[in-house]
Design a protein that fits this description.
Blueprint lengths: L2 E7 L3 H12 L8 E8 L5 H7 L5 E7 L5 H11 L4 E5 L3 E3 L3 H11 L4 E3 L7 E2 L2 E2 L5 H13 L14 E2 L3 H5 L4 H4 L9 H5 L15 E5 H7 L12 H11 L4 E3 L5 E4 L13 H10 L4 H4 L10 H15 L4 H23 L4 H21 L7 H16 L8 H59 L1
Parallel strand pairs: 1-2, 1-4, 2-3, 6-11, 7-12
Antiparallel strand pairs: 4-10, 5-12, 6-10, 8-9
Length: 458
């Protein structure tokens, strides 16, 4: 078996079955991939539907007695998988017929890479209308369905779920799916910045559509099962893969659509528990992580990545003041992350975040202006002033840096002392050599004088 598709599912029976139907339409050979569905303690009829489902590909259902969370569910799915390459997919991600084939193509071209569906995996579709959609969600659905002639005003107050796209629509290729797909807006900053790899490429690790070899997954340690709520569990794995030097590649083709459903169905990490787990495991020193406590990617992907680019340019700068400004900002971000981890309710954290975030936004706005005069100096002034006013200790060398300086000075003194000892030893050796030469010369001189005297006597 070459590919194993891993799908964790919690109370998503309806979208899951539509997604599984989509795998029946794959153009990749059905005997070369399997689908592992992990029922994460669902209370709906997921297992009943799976027990009656007979697809043309190998289906491996795994059921957990209790809800363990996405990380644990995916790990259990990997344990049951036999494929060399893992493809992680969500139960509400409706794949196109070329989904597996496209992953195969990218892995042939990019060995040992992590292949990601970002940013195009964010395309939305409305195959079902839920009665518990919020007013805002109903408006968004209506805009899409009205454009294709599938909307009825009766849907505004429909008491039951309405199935717009059926299993038969997918199998018979009726074109109904394409009519419920929302317009794609790739110009938005989040979509534009997601696949960039110069800084934080690991943000491409979004398990709605992600593949990598099983060997790399196991070497990285799999998903951290401390993450129980949704959010960061896939990025944290991506971060570990990034530290191991794995390249990240973005799929350019459309290979699936997110089936929109009521947002309250998601178990979001609203209190930041997952970020604290991140800090507990990886510390605060890396600005790619510490920045999450002040300006997370979810609140501005472009500003987040541009801040990292500023820090990256300062770190490699030949200008000492640039390097000093970079150290000061990194220390301030690390301090903010530490406060968030240990004292999230403390006034000090709120004051730091509320003061530093606007400065970062202002600096990154200048960064995006190619013709801004004295751009680098403006950015440096804004961020240095913010760090100094919000946390004066940021300007002080860190204890580690002070220890490093002391050790460097001690090393220099030791080297200087060693050189002095070498010179003294060389001088003594030269003196001994000169002394020996002088004594020998004196002996020769005396011997010659005696010979002359003897000749004179005779």
């Amino acid at each position: 078996m070459k590919y194993s598709v891993i799908i964790p599912s919690y109370n998503k029976a309806l979208p899951l079955m539509l997604t599984l139907t989509a795998f029946e339409t794959q153009t990749y050979p059905h005997d070369q991939f399997e689908v592992v569905v992990v029922n994460d303690g669902s209370t709906d009829d997921t297992m009943d539907r799976l027990s009656r489902y007979r697809p043309p590909y190998r289906l491996i259902p795994v059921s957990l007695d209790e809800t363990a969370g996405r990380s644990a569910a995916r790990n259990r799915g990997v344990e049951a998988a036999s494929g060399d390459i893992l493809i992680f997919c969500d139960p509400d991600y409706l794949v196109t017929p070329d989904f597996v084939k496209t992953h195969d193509l990218y892995h042939r071209q990019h060995r040992n890479a992590v292949v990601s569906g970002v940013p195009i995996l964010f395309i939305k579709a409305y195959p079902h209308l839920y009665p518990d959609f919020s007013a805002e969600e109903k408006v968004a659905a209506a805009e899409v369905l009205q454009a294709s002639g599938l909307w009825s005003n009766d849907y505004w107050h429909a008491p039951n779920l309405i199935e717009i796209v059926t299993r038969e629509d997918l199998l018979d290729r009726t074109g109904q799916l394409e009519k419920v797909v929302a317009p794609w807006e790739p110009v938005q900053e989040n979509y534009r910045e997601f696949p960039t790899t110069d800084v934080a490429p690991w943000l491409m690790a979004v398990t709605r559509n992600l593949s990598l070899s099983k060997r790399l997954f196991e070497e990285a340690g799999g998903f951290n099962e401390d993450f129980l709520k949704h959010g960061l569990e896939d990025w944290e794995l991506g971060y570990r893969l990034h530290l191991r030097g794995c390249p990240f590649i973005s799929i350019a083709e459309v290979v699936g659509y997110h089936q929109e459903h009521p947002s309250f169905h998601r178990s979001e990490d609203s209190q930041g528990e997952n970020l604290r787990i991140m800090y507990q495991n990886h510390g605060y020193s890396d600005p790619e992580i510490s920045l999450f406590a002040i300006l997370p990617p979810s609140e501005g992907m472009e500003a987040y990545k541009n801040t990292l680019r500023i820090l990256k340019s300062w770190r490699s700068s030949k200008n000492a003041s640039d390097r000093a400004a970079g150290r000061q900002l990194r220390r301030t971000l690390a301090h903010g992350a530490r406060l968030f981890h240990l004292q999230p309710e403390a006034p000090d954290y709120e004051a730091l975040k509320n003061g530093l975030k606007p400065a970062l936004m202002a600096a990154t706005q200048i960064y995006t202006q190619p013709e801004a005069p004295q751009k680098q100096e403006q950015i440096k002034a804004i961020l240095t002033q913010a760090c100094q006013s919000l946390w004066p200790d940021s300007a002080k060398p860190s204890p580690t840096r002070r220890r490093r300086k002391r050790s460097v000075r001690k090393g220099a003194l030791r080297k200087r002392g060693a050189r002095s000892q070498t010179r003294r030893a060389a001088g003594k050796a030269a003196s001994r050599t000169r002394g020996k030469a002088s004594r020998r010369s004196l002996r020769l001189f005396r011997a010659g004088t005696l010979r002359k005297r003897k000749r004179l006597r005779h």
